[in-house]
Amino acid sequence: MIAAFRQGMAVALGVDHPHCAVRIDEVAPEMQASLARDFATGTA
After folding, report:
1. Whole-model pTM?
2. 44: CB partners within 8 A, 6+ apart
3. Does the residue 32 lie in any domain?
4. Which of 7, 36, 38, 42 is most buried, judging by how many CB atoms fall within 10 Å of its CB?
């Protein structure tokens, strides 16, 4: 999953909590690139 994420596969995020239900259907490419850099450096 992380390998696909690093290669640019689309990512969706969600929170399933009784007091906060949120879904982001697709993370913006800029945010995904930033997160991928965090995974590469081990800061995430």
Report:
1. 0.56
2. 35, 38
3. yes
4. 36
